[in-house]
Design a protein that fits this description.
Layout: E1 2-7, H1 16-30, E2 34-39, E3 51-54, H2 78-88, H3 94-106, E4 115-119, H4 125-131, E5 136-139, H5 144-154, H6 157-166, H7 169-177, E6 183-185, H8 188-198, E7 205-207, E8 229-233, H9 243-254, E9 260-264, H10 272-280, E10 286-289, H11 294-303, E11 306-309, H12 318-325, E12 330-333, H13 338-342, E13 349-352, H14 357-368, H15 371-388, H16 391-414
Parallel strand pairs: 1-2, 1-4, 2-3, 4-5, 5-6, 6-7, 8-9, 8-11, 9-10, 11-12, 12-13
Helix pairs in contact: 1-16, 2-3, 3-4, 9-10, 9-14, 12-15
């Protein structure tokens, strides 16, 4: 099939969207389909044989000048004006404005594709694309209403006003996803959340887990690990990722043994995580890294004695399966889909309750202090990935969804 794969932002090595688009496009191509990725900035890094079309935005949140004031010459279309106007009212415009740009672009290319696959923009423009006669399906990794709820719970009363405005796009996403004929999601837990949060008919949903490149993410050949090294992927000051409980746990572990925490992400100066580092006196044993290639991330994971996923919610967790694929012992909370992804407690990971820094510290200390446990968890994690999480399997299941959606669209057109 000829696939238009849409992604409103596709940062190559940070955040799940760019990773998902890059690997799904590769795997779909490998099983015989033709894929063209259409993305807003930041753009993905794709293999040379995968077509790419950039759909430029005003890129209002780019580093190092987020919430920037564009120059007048940057406004090329009414969609650009809408994007800027929404930002000025504290809303997040990208899911909507990207979908409108995709609709405008695809109007002249309806004969180039058999299916349009949206990666969780869920903007109103998708409904316009469907009216062109192109079947439209989507991947929903999890409902962003859950992120909204966690952020509001952690916010001050005056901050909550701007957060409600920022997350206003979730109402649009609910309306759009209820009208799409087929939706993929990445876990049974996310499936249940989409049904309850967005009121989607269960028959329209199917679970298609993410994959991992098990050749790139593999145990280190020399089997060397750096004593006391702990690695986690955590967005600074996003409450959902559980960074503060992790820092509190590391502070407790540090009272009993040497420990180094390496965080894959970007710190926010003056934010909650930054303040927590000072409060706990952890500046000398915590460092941040970001923008890592797959090879560099795999090397980092392979150098650690333990990886941690401290999240308060996950719809899947690419960091979990990347660590498991590297044969690195894992500690993960029982939030959202994590038990489903990592398997039973003690097999590929130790389970801890979300938000419980004492339990997290106990589990991290236990793994750091037990060579046999680290070996058992690492071996179990690697095998679980090989058995369950390959991009080829993801692509094959996704292609089955495409075929069914296209057939359903043809039947509807004939009627």
């Amino acid at each position: 099939m000829r696939v238009a794969l849409l992604s409103y932002r596709s940062k190559p090595f940070c955040g799940g969207q760019g990773v998902y688009v890059r690997h799904l496009a590769r795997a779909l191509t490998d099983v015989g389909h033709t894929v063209e990725v259409l993305s807003g900035p930041p753009y993905p890094i794709l293999d040379d044989d995968i077509a790419f079309t950039a759909l430029p935005s005003l890129d209002l949140y780019r580093d190092p000048d987020p919430f920037r004031l564009p120059r007048l010459r940057e406004f090329r279309t009414p969609v650009d004006a809408l994007e800027f106007a929404l930002m000025c009212t504290a809303a997040f415009p990208e899911p909507l404005t990207f979908s409108l740009r995709a609709w405008r672009h695809l109007r002249s290319r309806i004969n180039d594709f058999d299916i349009v696959h949206d990666n969780q923009s869920l903007g109103y423009g998708l409904l316009g694309i469907a009216r062109l006669g192109l079947p439209v399906v989507a991947t929903v990794h999890h409902p962003v209403t859950i992120d909204r709820r966690f952020e509001l719970a952690a916010a001050s009363w005056h901050r909550s006003f701007s957060l409600r405005r920022w997350y206003g796009f979730t109402r649009m996403q609910g309306r759009v996803v209820r009208r799409l004929p087929a939706i993929a999601t990445v876990s049974s837990a996310a499936y249940d959340d989409i049904v309850s949060e967005f009121e989607v008919e269960p028959r329209r949903l199917r679970v298609i887990p993410n994959g991992v490149d098990s050749e790139s993410f593999a145990p280190p050949l020399d089997a060397s690990r750096i004593a006391g090294r702990v690695v986690a992927t955590a967005s600074a000051d996003v409450p959902l990722k559980g960074l503060v409980p992790l820092l509190e746990a590391v502070a407790k572990v540090r009272t009993e043994r040497d420990v180094e925490l390496v965080l894959v992400g970007k710190p926010k100066s003056g934010g909650v995580a930054d303040a927590t580092l000072d409060r706990l006196g952890l500046r000398d044993c915590v460092r941040w890294v970001n923008g890592l290639s797959d090879a560099a991330l795999a090397a980092l994971l392979g150098s650690a004695e333990v990886a941690v996923v401290p999240s308060l919610y996950e719809g899947f967790s690419l960091p979990a399966i990347e660590a498991m694929s590297c044969g690195t012992a894992l500690v993960a909370t029982t939030a959202g889909a994590l038990p489903e992804v990592v398997g039973p407690d003690g097999g590929a990971a130790l389970h801890v309750p979300p938000g419980d820094s004492d339990a997290l510290a106990l589990a991290i200390g236990r793994v750091l202090g037990d060579d046999a446990l680290r070996e058992r968890l690492g071996t179990g994690g690697r095998q679980r990935v090989l058995d369950n999480y390959t991009w080829r399997a993801t692509a094959q299941a996704t292609a089955e969804m495409y075929a069914e959606a296209a057939a359903s669209s043809r039947r509807a057109a004939e009627c």
